[in-house]
Every structure is written in C-alpha cells, then in structure tokens.
C-alpha cells in the first residue's frame, strides 16, 4: 500500500503541473521516468543497463520531444510546473519499480488491489473535500471510463507484465502512451498532427523494437 502511494502521487503531480506548463512539456517531464528507472535499476539491483537500452532511451527521449511538439512551443515555463512535472516522473518510476519488485510471489490481482488502495488513500488525503465540492453529474460516466482504462487495467497489466520485462524495459515500453495519446487526439478530438509529431512517434516505435531485439 505504501508503494501504491506513488500511483496516486503520479497522477496528482502531473495534473497539478499542467496548470502551470503546457501539456506537451508536462508529458516530457513525466517521461523522465525512463532514465530515472534506469538509474534505479542500476543502483537497487546492481545491474548496469545494456548499450541497447541506453540507445533506446536516447531515441525515446528524442522521439517524445518531437511527438509532443515541444520544438514549436514558445511559452515561458513556470518553475512550479517544472518541479511538479519532474516529481511526477520520479513517482512514476517508483510506481514501475513497485510493480516490478514488490511482493512478486503474490497474484497480480492481489498486488494491484493494494497498490491501487495506496493510491486511493493518497488522493483522498490530498484532495479531501474538493473531490465532492467539484463533483459534476455529467463527469461521472467519464469517470467510470477513465477508471477502467486508467486505474483498474494498468495496475493489473503492470504487475503481471513488468516482472517479466524489468524496470527499465517496462518503463520504455510504457512510453508508447505518447503515440497512443497523439493518435487519440487526432481521431477523437480532431487535432492536427504535424510531421514532426509523426517523426517522433516513429522514433519511439523504433526504440522499442531496438530494445527488444534478440528477446523473442
């Protein structure tokens, strides 16, 4: 449950950060969990990352920068948003570490249950009465949808899959949320996706392939 706090903290810090900085920058800061997880894996597990993983991380970071359209963002960055966004990246790396190493002998459903419960306690403690004060009836259906795909399924799949991939690999694979988010924005919100963004998506996919070469 204590490790599960990192799940709630990631969401809380990220949503707070994008009040001060553009969403594209917030995603970039969140994805700093890629190299943070590599450092964590090297220090905690005494396991140096391979050249392939290091190359993959560099490509993912470059691709993420392009995919989030950061080069075309000229807004001044608020230091509060930067601190909160980087904090979200740290807590995200902790969440992946917990999914990979904590109580691996337990069933995935049990581990997910306690991780999510820890995240719930953090969110309730942080937001407390604001959760009720700003509740809107028309937001409830969206809440259920986000709960399924954002809270229920991810911990189940994380706790099942990441022990098989390792922290760094799992974090890099999870960066596929960037191209998925971009495609969703294009298909659902009818946003225009630039050539730079498509290039970034391609680089991220290439990085995942490079890192997984030889693991079949």
UniProtKB/TrEMBL annotation:
GO CC annotations, alphabetized: membrane
Residue ranges of the TM segments: none
The organism's place on the tree of life at top rank: Bacteria
Name of the protein in its database record: Inner membrane transporter rhtA
PANTHER family (UniProt xref): ACYL-MALONYL CONDENSING ENZYME-RELATED, SOLUTE CARRIER FAMILY 35 MEMBER G2-RELATED
InterPro entries linked: EamA_dom (IPR000620), EmrE-like (IPR037185)
């Amino acid at each position: 449950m204590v490790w599960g706090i990192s799940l709630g903290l990631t969401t809380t810090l990220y949503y707070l950060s994008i009040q001060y900085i553009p969403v594209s920058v917030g995603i970039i800061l969140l994805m700093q969990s890629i190299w943070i997880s590599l450092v964590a894996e090297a220090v905690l597990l005494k396991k140096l990352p391979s050249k392939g993983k290091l190359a993959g991380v560099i490509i993912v970071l470059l691709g993420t920068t392009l995919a989030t359209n950061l080069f075309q963002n000229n807004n001044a960055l608020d230091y509060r948003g930067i601190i909160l966004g980087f904090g979200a990246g740290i807590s995200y790396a902790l969440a992946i570490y917990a999914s990979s190493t904590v109580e691996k002998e337990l069933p995935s459903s049990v581990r997910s249950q306690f991780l999510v419960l820890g995240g719930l306690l953090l969110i309730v403690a942080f937001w407390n009465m604001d959760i009720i004060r700003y509740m809107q009836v028309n937001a409830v259906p969206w809440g259920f949808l986000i709960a399924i795909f954002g809270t229920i399924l991810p911990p189940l799949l994380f706790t099942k899959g990441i022990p098989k991939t390792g922290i760094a690999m799992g974090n890099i694979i999870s960066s596929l949320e960037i191209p998925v988010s971009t495609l969703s924005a294009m298909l659902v919100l009818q946003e225009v996706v630039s050539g730079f963004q498509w290039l970034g998506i391609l680089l991220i996919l290439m990085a995942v392939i490079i890192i997984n070469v030889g693991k079949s």
